[in-house]
Description:
The chain is an alpha/beta fold. The protein has one domain: Double Stranded RNA Binding Domain. 32% of the residues lie in helices and 18% in strands. The chain has helices spanning 2-10, 12-15, 55-70, 142-145, 148-168, 187-199, and strands spanning 34-40, 45-46, 79-89, 104-113, 118-119, 125-129. Strands 1, 2, 3, 4, 5 and 6 form a six-stranded mixed beta sheet that branches. The chain is globular and about 55 Å long. The relative contact order is 0.21.
Amino acid sequence: MILRLAAALGLLLSLAGCITPPVSENADLGDFRLGYNIVQANGVKQGPFSRTVTGPELTGAMEQALETRLARYNGDGLYHIGVSIGGYVLAQPGLPLVYTPKSALIFEVNVYDNQTQQRLNAEPKQFTAFEGLENTAPIVGSGIVRGKEEQLANLTRNGAAQVETWLKQNPDWFVAEPGQTRMNISRSELRARSAAAVSSGGGIPAN
């Protein structure tokens, strides 16, 4: 994982220029409605020259970012998101113009259809998130101008946007079945069930 973090950071010059797309008011993703939003950080690897972040800080930030991005979709289906954070680098303060460390977050995602209880993606989808062009500080470095909370918020916000884009690239996953009825369940109940599943060490809970 450390080697992958280093390789990911090596791609920063070509990828960090991506600007995180804003959260659109026009939310349309077919039958998609966010079910369980479960983020785990078991055995996560801290990359070189990184600030230290706790597991709860990582999972909490990612859960919030995914909630903001995906909970606005209101299809009749119910789809669960499972995330495993594998590694991170939160840049420490460097030397302006000499050494400006970069931040990155590596994680894997699975999507499950509540109706069939099946995973929709054949293999876990891996993402590498950076802070984004609008959040970079190329002269002095992110570690000097931002605290770790802001760095982590930028990383998870960009990561959640990548997940949303991936879901939109797979519209065939979110097509309603004939005669399908909407399951009435609140976001607060779904969040509570997700939290209970994580605290018990389980996976996606069954309805």
